[in-house]
């Protein structure tokens, strides 16, 4: 008989499957202090929490039988993941439970900005009958731009089609084939900025997505566009949005999220008559609260009964004999994935991983998950982890191919990663060298020797005399110090690459100066 402790308020309806299970006993004890939880946790096989209980290392050290911690929600900030992983405790969450709730809130906000509902309500209850000030627009035949075509973005698109809206979607993993199946047009962020009548964002907040919509994008927009953000604060530059509204570019906006929550009392959104705000209500429905509890209950039962599960957020158990062989390659594998995705401009259709040499004789599934995490994390950040990386890739329509071979190109071991897109592919290979550690030894067809850490400038150029000198002079005159330089070429005078490690990130001006240099085809910044 398994014992499950529920230490936060979670609806009985949401965890009914646990109550009904013949092999499970459920105990609900909420409001426990850390010391109180430590006193009783040794009796339990599973712990269910929301956000109130802080599951610390001390609690887990006392939990001698604990197999799984379930978080009835998305975030797991209240759980010490490192401590859980070290003790072999699986931590799961419920990333899908609030999908419909957030999607519907997005549409509520879209309708509100289209028809000025909050403003009309406020004036009407104040005693004024003012119909002329609140003339709205229809959704019918309007262009909706959706930035982020994951679970929520896809649901928004499905409902928008029922309103006869024309949809342009952007997502770094959206392929032409998937866009066609969804019945939408694939476009870039700038395409959406130029064409959309309504824009809604549904991406995680990462380095890549922070201020994804800012002054340059607002300058591209047609007058009267309406903006909705029910995803994460910071994806849209708040100050730039206010400027765009005041300049007449953006007609109105609706935000459920802020860069800092709760917002300060003098936040410009709170007193602007063309901005609608709600206090992060995207997941605040009875159904969503129950759904996340149902999802977690299902996963807890699967884990306790040794059945397959998918929503773990920490490293699953790996036999120590396998882990000892793979551990040295984890950091290398993740950085190979991170490096290559930053070189890849188009949506990925396939991820190919080849293990050679001593790695060919080991179960490399855990290492594969780490490599795929490195690829996806550039866009998904904390949404992806070593457990769900393969599941997320496949959910986005990315095919995973893993191979083993005896060819090591002279190295004791070799990891070769290839990302295939509709129009081509990019390849990187890495190894561990005794005395030197992790090294990148190949990028596309070019042999190189690079330590996978730091700030890089990856330059594609024509192999002409003076090209290297021009680049060095340009960077030096702009106070960008070159730490190392690698040059790769196949034939004299043909295509070549230059990989520079630099001491600081080059400014946008420096990047433009580089790409304006005649011999340079492209210049990309890569950060590991």
Annotate the secondary structure layout.
Layout lengths: L1 E5 L9 H5 L3 E5 L5 H7 L5 E4 L7 H6 L5 E4 L9 H6 L3 E3 L6 H17 L1 H9 L17 E5 L3 H12 L3 E5 L5 H7 L2 E2 L2 H7 L2 E4 L13 H6 L4 E5 L8 H9 L3 E6 L19 E3 L8 H19 L15 H24 L4 E10 L7 H16 L8 H7 L3 E7 L7 E9 L3 E9 L3 E7 L2 E5 L4 E8 L4 H11 L4 E8 L5 E8 L5 H9 L3 E8 L1
Helix pairs in contact: 5-7, 13-14
Entry summary:
The protein is an alpha/beta fold. The protein has helices at 16-20, 34-40, 57-62, 81-86, 99-115, 117-125, 151-162, 176-182, 189-195, 215-220, 238-246, 286-304, 320-343, 365-380, 389-395, 467-477, 508-516; strands at 2-6, 24-28, 46-49, 68-71, 90-92, 143-147, 166-170, 185-186, 198-201, 225-229, 250-255, 275-277, 348-357, 399-405, 413-421, 425-433, 437-443, 446-450, 455-462, 482-489, 495-502, 520-527.
Describe the model.
The protein is α/β, with parallel strands linked by helices. Helices cover 34% and strands 25% of the residues. It has helices at residues 16-20, 34-40, 57-62, 81-86, 99-115, 117-125, 151-162, 176-182, 189-195, 215-220, 238-246, 286-304, 320-343, 365-380, 389-395, 467-477, 508-516; strands at 2-6, 24-28, 46-49, 68-71, 90-92, 143-147, 166-170, 185-186, 198-201, 225-229, 250-255, 275-277, 348-357, 399-405, 413-421, 425-433, 437-443, 446-450, 455-462, 482-489, 495-502, 520-527. The strands form 4 sheets. A 7-stranded parallel β-sheet has the order 8-7-6-9-10-11-12, with helices on both faces. The protein has a 6-stranded mixed β-sheet with strand order 14-13-15-16-17-18. Strands 2-1-3-4-5 form a 5-stranded parallel β-sheet. α5 packs across α7 (151-162) and α13 (320-343) runs parallel beside α14 (365-380). The longest helix has 24 residues, at 320-343. The two termini are 47 Å apart. The model has no long low-confidence stretch (mean pLDDT 91).
């Amino acid at each position: 008989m398994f014992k499950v402790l529920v230490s936060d308020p979670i609806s009985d309806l949401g965890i009914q499957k646990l109550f009904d299970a013949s092999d499970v006993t459920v105990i609900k004890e909420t409001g426990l202090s850390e010391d109180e939880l430590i006193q009783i946790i040794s009796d339990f096989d599973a712990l269910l929490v929301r956000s109130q209980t802080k599951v610390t290392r001390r609690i887990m050290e006392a939990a001698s039988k604990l197999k799984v911690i379930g978080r009835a929600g998305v975030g797991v900030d209240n759980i010490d993941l490192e401590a859980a992983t070290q003790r072999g405790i699986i931590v799961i969450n419920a990333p899908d439970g609030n999908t419909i709730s957030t999607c519907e809130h997005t549409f509520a906000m879209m309708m509100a900005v289209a028809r000025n509902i909050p403003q009309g309500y406020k004036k009407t209850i104040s005693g004024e009958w003012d119909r002329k000030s609140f003339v709205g627009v229809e959704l019918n035949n309007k262009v909706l731009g959706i930035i982020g075509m994951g679970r929520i973005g896809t649901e928004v698109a499905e409902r928008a089609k029922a309103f006869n809206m024309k949809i342009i979607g952007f997502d770094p993993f959206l392929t032409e084939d998937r866009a066609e199946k969804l019945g939408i047009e694939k476009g870039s962020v700038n395409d959406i900025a130029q064409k959309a009548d309504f824009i809604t964002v549904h991406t995680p907040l990462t380095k890549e997505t922070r201020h994804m919509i800012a002054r340059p994008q607002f300058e591209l927009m047609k007058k009267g566009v309406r903006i909705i953000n029910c995803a994460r604060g910071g994806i849209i530059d708040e100050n730039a949005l206010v400027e765009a509204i005041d300049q007449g570019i953006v007609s109105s906006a609706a935000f459920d999220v802020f860069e800092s929550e709760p917002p300060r009392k003098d936040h410009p959104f709170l007193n602007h008559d063309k901005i609608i705000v709600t206090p992060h209500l995207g997941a605040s429905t009875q159904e969503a609260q129950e759904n996340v509890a149902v999802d977690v209950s299902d996963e807890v039962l699967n884990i306790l009964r040794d059945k397959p599960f998918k929503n773990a957020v920490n490293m699953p158990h790996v036999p120590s004999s396998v882990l000892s062989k793979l551990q040295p390659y984890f950091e290398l594998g993740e950085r190979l994935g991170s490096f290559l995705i930053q070189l890849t401009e188009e949506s990925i259709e396939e991820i190919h991983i080849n293990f050679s040499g001593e790695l060919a004789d080991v179960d490399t599934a855990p290492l594969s998950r780490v490599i795929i995490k490195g690829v996806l994390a550039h866009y998904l950040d904390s949404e992806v982890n070593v457990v769900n990386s393969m599941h997320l890739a496949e959910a986005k329509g990315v095919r995973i191919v893993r191979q083993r071979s005896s060819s090591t190109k002279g190295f004791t071991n070799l990891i070769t990663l290839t990302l295939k897109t509709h129009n081509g592919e990019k390849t990187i290979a890495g190894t561990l060298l005794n005395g030197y550690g992790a090294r990148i030894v190949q990028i596309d067809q070019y042999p190189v020797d690079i330590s996978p850490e730091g700030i890089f400038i990856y330059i594609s150029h024509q192999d002409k005399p003076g090209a290297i000198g021009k680049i060095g002079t340009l960077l030096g005159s702009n106070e960008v110090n070159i730490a190392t330089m690698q040059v790769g070429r196949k034939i004299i005078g043909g295509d070549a690459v230059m990989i520079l490690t630099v001491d600081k990130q080059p400014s946008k001006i420096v990047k433009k100066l580089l790409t304006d240099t005649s011999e340079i085809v492209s210049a990309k910044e890569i950060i590991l």
